[in-house]
Amino acid sequence: MMGFVRSLRDCIYYDENYLGGKAYWLNILINRGYTVPKGYVLTKELYEDYVINNNITIEESRDELFQYDEIREKIYNGHFNEEVLNVLYDTYEKLKKPIIVRSSSSIEDNELSSCAGLYKSIGDIYQFNKFIDAIKLCWISSFNDMIDVIVGKRRDYAISLIVQEQIIPEFGGVAFTANPVTMDEREIVIEVSKDGSKEVVSGSGFCECKIFNKLEICSESIDYPFDELIKSLLDIEILREKPIDVEWVYTMGTLYFLQVRPITTLSAVMEKNIFETEDAMVTKFNLQNCTSMHSRWLEKKIPVRKYCKENNINLQRFIYYFSSNDKYHNDVDNIIFYMRSNIIEVVDGKKNMLIDKQYLKEIINKEYKDSQVLRIGESISTEYCGFSTYLDGKIYIETVKGGFTGLYEGFNPTKYIVDLNGSIISETIEEFEQEYFLNPNDGKWQVRDIEKNPLTISKEVIQKIINMTAIIKKKYGEVRLEWIGNKEDIYLFDLTVEKTKIGNTYLSSNILSSGIAKGKVKILNDISVFDKYIQEVSIRMGHKLSEMKKSDEIKEIKKKIINERTDTILVCEYPKETLVTLIEHVEGFVFRRGSLLCHLSIILREKGKPAIIDQDIFDRINDGDEVMINNGEFIVF
């Protein structure tokens, strides 16, 4: 049992494979006299014991999307035995609060790959139960498709963890003993934020960049604590025998080191300044503030985009532009030519702008002059958009005017059921008097009134949707596709794997999720109460959702909505995805309008929660009525 926890200071006899890269090098720094926050290593043995005691089988990674969902959920819902909990509680009590739990994998922070930002760290922990949750969530982060893309699928999922006292910084940041973008090993680059290294590495905060020439340091007058930081950086670089990347914070006169790792991007030779997002070389370079954004794409979008390009499926174009390597921005003309749309999106990880592409060079010089890496993509005018899925030899299509927000906000879609030759089996045509559009001034989706007209799509467009859906099915099965349309052109936007197969009965009925449920009506007139949590809701029932369910604010809102002493049938205007927070508290849902393929409908089917559409529902019932959902039938007692 003692092998589960080891003092970070006393790990000198253990190797990097056992401790993980982060813990191994922090131990070396401590024993070389550098200041590191007090902490302990939770070894791989703790993880292995937990997996065995909870009967969790770790299968070899499969070539499919969302392959790790079931394992993540099992780890989060598992339990430590009493003896292990006592050991962890003793560890927790030895540290000043707040504490932070950080991953330390043997495949991160090493010579070949940093896996920057892919393994989880959870801070601001003041309670023991939050400490236990953080351990599980850090373990869960090892089951990540993004890591597979970078280091390969045959790897050790077991990771050590570090639990440390969390330092509240006066300021801090990240420092490099070689310029990670220009590859110049004569330069030291220090990025500083008043909020510490977290804001720098995530790209979410404002930071100042300082560059020092190693050959001129002796003759320069450098303010404290940067003089001490630079001296330490040069010493640690000699110790590691290669250029390094260090996270650091400064508070109350003390310089703390949080992490040290080699700069893995220096081994990659950049022979050009423009790379498509799915180019494997991109993972070899330092993407600066675009790193976390690219990590999210690695999990799903990049594998899908590669497959689509191989099969001539139309996609929006996105590239990374290493502007700092192109001093006079000579490559901008090539970017303008490559982008088919006149309006493009420019992102540096902190700021995003929608601009006319003819002004790209001017905007870079004015708005992004300090940015070293930009992600630039097409902003296709979305005349209409929709979902499609393959079902028993037929294609089911839903479409609305404008952008996807219309579907998410419950617009009734025009619906088609077609065969593979494009013949229409059935159709339901809806009229639209509103649409969501992307406001170029602020980059946000907004609603506007339009002249009321029915939405139909041509046979040519239907055939393109059929072809795209059939090709994707060959690789990923019966997934739901999201696509956007501009005139006669269709572009794949995203896809979602649905574990529960949609039966034919769904296509010609009011059923969103089949089943039987009985209870008392609760009418929820205002479903915007969960809007502030929209970014935390994942269609995959992962740890973000679990964290959200535990928030005190969510609990209070639930108490106002749900009487937990009775079975509840929740009645709402439409299936807004944030209602997922209420699924475990209700027996079923009734909506006035909505889409069969929207996010919440998919989750309801996966969770086995009955849900139907009833256009007259608000005229038929009152709060407290005894009702029953019997598949598509709605009964008021």
Q: How does the overall form come out from the CA principal axes? A: globular
Overall number of structural domains: 5
- First-last Cα distance: 59 Å
CATH topology name of the largest domain: Dna Ligase, domain 1
Per CATH, the class of the largest domain reads Alpha Beta
Percent strand: 25-35%
GO molecular function: ATP binding; kinase activity
Pfam family, one: PPDK_N
InterPro entries: ATP_grasp_subdomain_1, PEP-util_enz_mobile_dom, PEP_Utilizing_Enz, Phosphohistidine_dom_sf, PPDK_AMP/ATP-bd
Organism: Alkaliphilus serpentinus
Explained architecture:
The protein has 637 residues and is of the alpha+beta class. The protein folds into five domains: 2-165, Dna Ligase, domain 1, CATH 3.30.1490.20; 171-267, ATP-grasp fold, B domain (D-amino Acid Aminotransferase, Chain A, domain 1, 2-Layer Sandwich); 274-378, no CATH class; 384-496, D-amino Acid Aminotransferase, Chain A, domain 1, CATH 3.30.470.20; 507-636, Glucose Oxidase, domain 1. It contains 20 helices and 30 strands. The protein has a seven-stranded mixed beta sheet with strand order 24-28-27-26-25-29-30. A six-stranded antiparallel beta sheet has the order 19-18-17-16-22-23, with helices on one face. The longest helix has 18 residues, at 459-476. It is globular. The chain starts with a strand and ends with a strand. Residues 109-117, 200-205 and 534-549 have low confidence and may be disordered. One of its GO terms (molecular function) is ATP binding. InterPro entries: ATP_grasp_subdomain_1 (IPR013815), PEP-util_enz_mobile_dom (IPR008279), PEP_Utilizing_Enz (IPR051549), Phosphohistidine_dom_sf (IPR036637), PPDK_AMP/ATP-bd (IPR002192). It comes from Alkaliphilus serpentinus. This is Pyruvate, water dikinase. Residues 17-203 form the Pyruvate phosphate dikinase AMP/ATP-binding domain.
